[in-house]
Write a structure and sequence with these properties.
Elements: H1 6-18, E1 34-38, H2 42-46, E2 61-65, H3 66-73, H4 78-89, H5 91-99, H6 105-111, H7 118-141, H8 149-172, H9 182-198, H10 209-213, H11 218-226, H12 231-238, H13 241-259, H14 266-282
Antiparallel strand pairs: 1-2
Length: 291
């Protein structure tokens, strides 16, 4: 995928259109202020035997503002600049910014490896390729053209809330998967097994709590937060189990209506949108910001 090719331009434009957030400002860079950033620096790639032109693949590129690219990140490896971003903004916010670039939590963990080797680089490319393929299918094949622009925007906000909930759970439980309810683990394993049959490259996804959470639906995230073993970690943020359960119900009702092409009546939409706003206000700042 050479720069200037139709595939390269298509994916890069997809990142721009998706609203890929700048890693310093948290906002999408202006079109006239975009740099074509190497996530793993090109100079590092030139110094590695046998890497060749893989360093220039679109899988290692993403749009950032020129100031962030040239004056903040410069020519450093991700295991140098990403810890600085996490220290400044918090891991949940950084995960969500990276997700807007099709960089998953698994890819983040790979980029943080120190030392960072050619094998790590290839593992990152494989993971980002997987996420990009899923993203392209979601954004282009399942673009929900049957929905009005306002409902599509609402659907995107719901997606950001789900991603933020997963990140919050992973962080609050300290990555301890043993604190998940048994039925949640069972469902995650079943869905993971189905995914492995289609793509063996995802076999290791279930090794971490963040990986398991990727195979949990919204109701299972609710079960985790409200479980006896975990509620104490979330009570200071959400206060009332009853209110939280009601908001999950409203959010799930709207989400299922949108995702399964069901008619969304005005009451369901209004209650669901109120639930989205409620979660956006209570989740960590910047992690699920609307539009």
């Amino acid at each position: 995928m050479k720069r200037g090719s139709s595939v390269y331009n298509g994916i890069f434009n997809l990142l721009v259109l998706r609203g890929a957030q700048d890693w310093m400002t948290g906002h999408a860079p202006q079109y006239d202020d975009l740099d074509d950033h190497h996530i793993v620096p090109k100079d590092w790639g030139k110094s590695q035997t046998g890497l060749g032109n893989r360093i220039d693949t679109i899988l290692n590129r993403t749009p950032l503002s020129s100031d962030t690219n040239r004056n903040v990140i410069k020519n450093r490896l991700p295991n140098k600049y990403l810890p600085e971003l996490i220290s400044k903004y918090g891991e949940i916010t950084v995960r969500n910014m990276l997700s807007s670039h099709f960089i998953s939590p698994a890819a983040l963990k790979i980029l943080l490896r120190d030392p960072f080797t050619v094998d790590d680089f290839d593992a990152f490319l494989l993971e980002r390729q997987r996420v990009l393929r899923e993203g392209i299918e979601e954004l282009l094949v399942k673009e929900r053209l049957d929905l009005s622009p306002s409902l599509r925007q609402l659907d995107e906000r719901i997606e950001r809330v789900e991603l933020s909930l997963r990140s919050l759970i992973d962080e609050s439980l300290g990555g301890d998967e043993s604190r998940l309810p048994p039925h949640v683990i069972k469902k995650a394993r079943e869905r993971h097994a189905t995914s492995v049959k289609k793509n063996p490259a995802v076999a290791e996804r279930l090794d971490t709590l963040s990986g398991k959470l990727e195979y949990c639906d919204l109701r299972e995230l609710e079960d985790i937060v409200l479980s006896k073993t975990a509620w104490g970690d979330f009570a200071p943020r959400f206060s009332s189990k009853e209110t939280l359960a009601a908001k999950f119900g409203q959010l799930a009702e709207l989400r299922n209506g949108l995702r399964h092409s069901r008619t969304v009546d005005e009451v369901t939409r209004m209650e669901g949108e109120a639930a989205v706003l409620w979660f956006e206000q209570l989740l960590p700042a910047g992690s699920a910001a609307g539009n």
